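User: Here's a structure from my thesis project, written as structure tokens. My advisor, Dr. K., wants to see whether a designed sequence matches the one we expressed. Can you design one independently, without my sequence as a hint?
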């Protein structure tokens, strides 16, 4: 379980202090998907970079299964980072264009199991590809030989390979065709059920977030303005900003 307690992240710039994240507290329980929603610049990426231990928090506490992460040594942080994996909007961000799918996934598996032999690595690569719906016969291909949706499936397999405790998916479907979007959302939902995965799903689109998430946190100006179950936030929003976001959701998605 991930617990954030009053996280702040301030950047000191020539123009003054930017309070990118300003007192955010939230919990992601095991096997649940938290949708983090808000418009560009509200602090979603900064918050996820803090959770990933890519940048230090200014203040606050981040605990994974009760262990405080903000005070770990650099060496410990490197190891802990395996517990958090990201899926990005553009799969090229996580896929090396010069590496085959097999090499990409085997390398990610080795991060967790450095001594694994080739036979066992191959077995695990085939299993990962099966999990995300890619045929094993494609494993010697390169990322450019796949469609956008297939690439995102491979990026999801790449994120699963080090056996993370939590996946942060940052706008993972917003660059895909609408027809492909629902396939990837259904895959994420299925993985969450089959693997009991915990996930933070970041999006500016409250409709997409409601489709996938168990709980929703709405962020505005570095703060959380509303949190609750997906249905409560979607059908019974309390905050004016959430209501404004909802007005941007096509009526058809709201039933
Ligand atoms: N390294 C940095 N130095 C200074 N300011 C920063 C830095 N990183 C982010 N910010 C500022 O912090 C605020 C939050 O940015 P952030 O990228 O977290 O928002 P976001 O909600 O993820 O936006 P987007 O959806 O466009 O990625 C913005 O005002 C941004 O300009």
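Assistant: Designed independently from the structure alone:
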């Amino acid at each position: 379980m991930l617990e954030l307690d009053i996280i702040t992240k301030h950047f000191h710039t020539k123009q003054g202090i930017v309070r990118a994240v300003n007192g955010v507290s939230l919990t992601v329980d095991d096997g649940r998907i938290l949708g983090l929603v808000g418009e560009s610049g509200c602090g979603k990426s900064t918050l996820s970079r803090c959770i990933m231990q890519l940048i230090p928090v200014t203040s606050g506490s981040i605990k994974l299964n009760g262990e405080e992460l903000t005070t770990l040594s650099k060496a410990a942080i490197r190891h802990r980072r395996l517990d958090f994996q990201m899926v990005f909007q553009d799969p090229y961000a996580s896929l090396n264009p010069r590496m085959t799918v097999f090499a990409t996934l085997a390398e990610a598996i080795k991060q967790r199991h450095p001594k694994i032999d080739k036979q066992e690595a191959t077995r695990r690569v085939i299993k990962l590809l099966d999990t995300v719906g890619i045929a094993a016969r494609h494993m010697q291909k390169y990322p450019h030989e796949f469609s956008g949706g297939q690439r995102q499936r491979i990026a999801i397999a790449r994120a699963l390979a080090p056996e993370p405790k939590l996946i942060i998916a940052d706008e993972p479907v917003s660059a895909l065709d609408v027809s492909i979007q629902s396939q990837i959302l259904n895959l994420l939902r299925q993985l969450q059920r089959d693997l009991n995965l915990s996930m933070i799903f970041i999006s500016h689109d409250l409709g997409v977030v409601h489709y996938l998430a168990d709980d929703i946190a709405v962020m505005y100006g570095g703060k959380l303005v509303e949190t609750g179950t997906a249905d409560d936030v979607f059908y019974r929003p309390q905050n004016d900003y959430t209501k404004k976001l909802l007005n941007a959701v096509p009526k058809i998605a709201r039933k």
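When you compare it with your expressed construct, this may help: The CA atoms of residues 21 and 222 lie 4 Å apart.
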